[in-house]
Structure formats: structure tokens, C-alpha cells
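2024-03-11 09:14:02 INFO receiving multi-entity request
2024-03-11 09:14:02 INFO entity count = two
2024-03-11 09:14:03 INFO echoing inputs for audit
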Amino acid sequence: MIALEEIRQQPDILQGWLDRQLESTRKFAAEIRKRKVEYVYLAARGTSDHAGIYAQYIWGALAGLPVALAAPSLFTLYKAAPKLARALVVGISQSGESPDIVQVIQEGRRQGAVTVSITNVESSPLESAAEYAIHLGAGTERAVAASKTYTAELMAVAALAALLSGSDANVQALHGVPDAVRCSLDLEPLLGEKVAAFTGMDNCLVIGRGFNYCTAREWALKMKEVTYIHAEAYSSADFLHGPIAIVGGGDVVMIVAPAGRTEKDFVRLLTTLQDQKKARVVLITDDSALVHSVPDGFLIPDTTPEWLTPITAIVPAQLFSVLLAGALGLNPDSPRGLSKVTRTL
Amino acid sequence: MIALEEIRQQPDILQGWLDRQLESTRKFAAEIRKRKVEYVYLAARGTSDHAGIYAQYIWGALAGLPVALAAPSLFTLYKAAPKLARALVVGISQSGESPDIVQVIQEGRRQGAVTVSITNVESSPLESAAEYAIHLGAGTERAVAASKTYTAELMAVAALAALLSGSDANVQALHGVPDAVRCSLDLEPLLGEKVAAFTGMDNCLVIGRGFNYCTAREWALKMKEVTYIHAEAYSSADFLHGPIAIVGGGDVVMIVAPAGRTEKDFVRLLTTLQDQKKARVVLITDDSALVHSVPDGFLIPDTTPEWLTPITAIVPAQLFSVLLAGALGLNPDSPRGLSKVTRTL
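2024-03-11 09:21:47 INFO inference complete, emitting structure
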């Protein structure tokens, strides 16, 4: 199964990124600081959009940069681009081919903004459009549902946050990620056993917050792409503003809750979901006490700081989705109705 | 049924807003232009977040302002607010009470940004925190699932777009909205008949794009809040990047597709969904030809320009959700597990 092979390649790809791309990204970060951008305008779709959401949180938290996620249709359909001269304009795309993302970068450059592409394909249209390029170097991704290019995108985003923060400790923390991802992969046999109990579900909710809101979004997308199960992601804060109404007895709620600033809320939510709503909770956490509060808890290493846990936490979520697809008799390598490169205008 | 009464009040509330708030908003718009903001940083949750998404599109398209939707947890949980000095910082909240939204405004003001609240409750904490206040004046909203405060929020956002655009024609177009909403309400008897065929569904997808992406999001939230049906919203562009995989025969897909820049894409999507996927399509449009391409099409008036259709298009969606709840024997006035004011930190 190609999807599973590519998931397993992730530690080596992340190590390779650090070995080959960190220094060039350091130069780019120095340039951004010199050009005094006021905010970031970031365009991405699908899985890459979740790397954008990660950027929204950690570029804000570590580097003080507000991040606006672009509405590409303003550029393509409505021909009414906003002013971007004081922005850092970023395009993230595995293939570098989506014309709408390319147009956002082109318009930013036309207006004199600092522009950067983050792609896995050198000399792609997106890379050609941008002033600066960050390569993912993840090798060809053959499975339609992205895995290794997603974690490589997260690493690029994390590295930029660390470099812009001006803290050596933050940059140092990046080097612990490949090994932590290797530990996350050790969950594969346990996940292989556990997924069998979830083959009957029609839909589920996936909850994360703060730095790991992106993880919830990406997990939900993987579930839809490879298992065809309706999975919807929420921030725990938004979840309480309405959607919690739909949870009934026996419903599956998947939660990403590493130790850190968001954990207290999750402890309360776990009680509500399990005791009051009688929901079935699947939990990914790096808290070895919390993991035992649910029957289906998966422990990731606690060796990375909270802002880097999205790279380790998505790994069991990728495995869960792909192994469940296998248990359902589906082929996660080429889901129905999807192609690897989607061109939207 | 209170929910239905409040939906029917919308034309009068919108007219009242124009009569009482448009002039004070004009003064505020002049002030924003004078203070030379570079971009907007907007905080909102739940239904109000959908008014924020509307702002993201039309403040971009009509006024050239990039809009960043805030990540409030940066302010509350992580204590790491980004720099906001050159931003217009906006908080939208029906109750004006959510502490996280208040904190975003307080921080913006502390940093010297222009701050504005859009709320239905005068002297609420949010209003007290902001330099400028825009009142909704929608009267007390008693149904837990918002309707009239949502369309009033959209009107406030639309008015600001029109005033900042500097075009008298845009401001003039606002005055056509109350009557157009009145026409949308005429769909109630037809919707009342049609919903009976949808009582058996467990989940559905809601698709909109561009200006009406907010409508898709709000429709999906209404469905969840009052019918407890899993409904997930997508931009048609993102939908093709993965989630279309989950659509199977007999699945319900709800589409908001007024005539305009996005319509061509929807014509193609309708064919794919109906002919290839054998999905059941529910359609809201102002195109009298397109409406007949599906068995369950609902025609809204074509008297408003595309950028104002989110105010008319949400009305049949509100009615659909509330009438379907009634058909399911549920009480849409107070859904299980929800309270009117949600306080998140």
C-alpha cells in the first residue's frame, strides 16, 4: 500500500528537509525581517490549507505576524484583489500548479509585496511566480491523499516561525521532530488492531484547538478522502457554539489534545462527551495520564514543545484513516473521484 | 414557533437598520479611510463568524481590504497576540459577551489600532471595549439558533463595504435588500411542502462559493443546530480538492448558487452531482432557468447585485432548517445542549 509507505517515510523526509533547506530558509527569514511586512496573506487549498492554518497560529504566536488566509476567488472570479503591498504573500501547494494560488502570488508580486512559494515541485508555476522559494523535497507523492508533503509543509512553516522568532531554542527544537515522528509511527500495530471496531461508523467529528486545530482539519480530510466517512472538524471553542448539539449516544468524536494551553478545556470536554453524551472518544495526546481516560487513546511522544506537536500528532491520524480504509476493503491509494492535482480558478 | 417568527421579522429589522444606523456608519467609514488601515483583523465565533467570512469577501472585493479572521486563542490561551497597530480590528458578536472576542478588541485598542464592535446588545462588554460601535438593533433574539441577528450583521458588513467603496450605487443597492428578503420569505409554503421528503437523511453537504461561501457555512450550522443532521459546508473549489469523494448515490447536496461570477462552475458541478454521482440536490438561486435544473430548487429575487445575495439567499436556508426540524418533531427554539450565550476563553 503506497499510502502506508509514504506515511512511514516521514521521519527521513523531515530530517532531509532540516539538512538541506534550513540554512536557505534562514536567509529568507532575515530578508522578511528587513522588508518590514505588516501581516501575511496566505493562499492554499485542501491539505495545504491546513498547513496555512498552522502558520496562522504559530507565525502569530512565535513571530507576532497576523495571518490572513486568502480568498482566491477575489483574484480569479471577481477580479478584485485587495491591496497587498505591506504583506508577505505566501502560496502553499504540493504540485505548485493550482492556477488560483498562482494568481494570488502574481498579484502580490505585481503590487510589490514579498512573495514566497512552498511547493514540492521545483520550477512549478507557483515557484516561478514567487520571489522566494522553499522546497519541500519530499520526493514524488504517489498516494492521492497527501501525507508526507503535509508534514514537510508543516516543517517549513515551523522553521520559518522559529527563525522569525529570533530564538535559538525554537530553532533547536526543530531538530527533535524527526525522531518524535518516528516514535509516533510505532503506534501502527496498535492502530491496526483498534480500527476494526470503527468500520461501522457513518460519520464522526474531529476536535482540536489552537496549534492543533490544523490537525483536526487534516484528520477529518483524510477520513473523507480515504474512508468516505463524513468527518467534520471543529475548534473546541466553536464546537461549543452550536455543533455539540448533534452529538448523540454512540457517536464517534475524535480529539487531538496534547498537553499545553488547550488541555484543561479538553479534560472538561472529554467528561461531557463520555459521561453526558455517551459518545465514543478517540484521543491523540502526549499526556500519559490523559490517554488512559478513554478506551481508544493513542500516545505520541512528549519530547516536542506544544507548537511542534501538529507534526507528531497527525501521524497516528494518518495511520488511523489509512488502516481503517484497509479494514473497510477500500484502496486508500486512489480514492474515487479524486485526482492528485486539482486545478481551480 | 419563535424561530419562525424571528425569521419573518427580518425585512423590518433590515429596513430599521438602514433607517437608524446607516448615517452613523457613514461617519465611521470616513474615519477608517482617514486612519489608513492596511488590513482588517476580525474576531467572531459561530454564526457571527459567518458574517466575518462575508466581510472577508466583500471588504476585499469592494474596498480593497484584506481580512484576517482572528485566532482568538492566541490572545487568550497562548498570551501571544500578533502586532495589530496598522489593522482595523473588528469584533462581531450577537451578545457582545464572549470573553475571547472582547480580548482581541482590547488588545487591538492597546496597540493603537482602530477598533469596532458589531453587536445586538448596547453597553455589552464588547461594545465597551471598542472605540467605535455599530448596533444591530434587531431586538431581543429568543430562539437559540440565530436568524435575524445574522442578517442584521450581514447588513452592517455590507453597508461598511458599500461606504468604503466610495460608490453611491453600492450604497443605493442596500436599500433594495429589505424588499428582496420579503420576497425570499414567500418561499415558506413551498419549503413547508418540500422538507417532508428530507426527514430521512442523516447527513448532507452544503456548497457555496465566493460571496455566498458564508451562506453555505451558515446553512450547515442551522441544520446542525436545529435538526441535529450532520451538515458540512464547502467552497466548491475546496470541495473538488478531496471531499467530493464522499458523495454517493442518494446523498443530499445543498447548493447556494446565485447568478454571477461563480455560476458557471456550479452548472458543471450540478451535472456531476446529478448525472454521475446520483446525488439529490437542493438548490437556492436567483437564476430562473437554473432553478428548474433540479427537482428541489428555490428561487430568490434577482433584484440585488451578487454581493448582496447572501442576505436574501440565507432566508430559504433558515426556513428549510427550521421547517425540517418541525417535520422531524423537534423544537427548533431550544436545541439540546446549546445556550444562547457561549463564553469561550
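2024-03-11 09:21:48 INFO post-check: Residues 10-35 of chain A form the longest helix (26 residues).
2024-03-11 09:21:48 INFO post-check: The mean pLDDT of chain A is 93.
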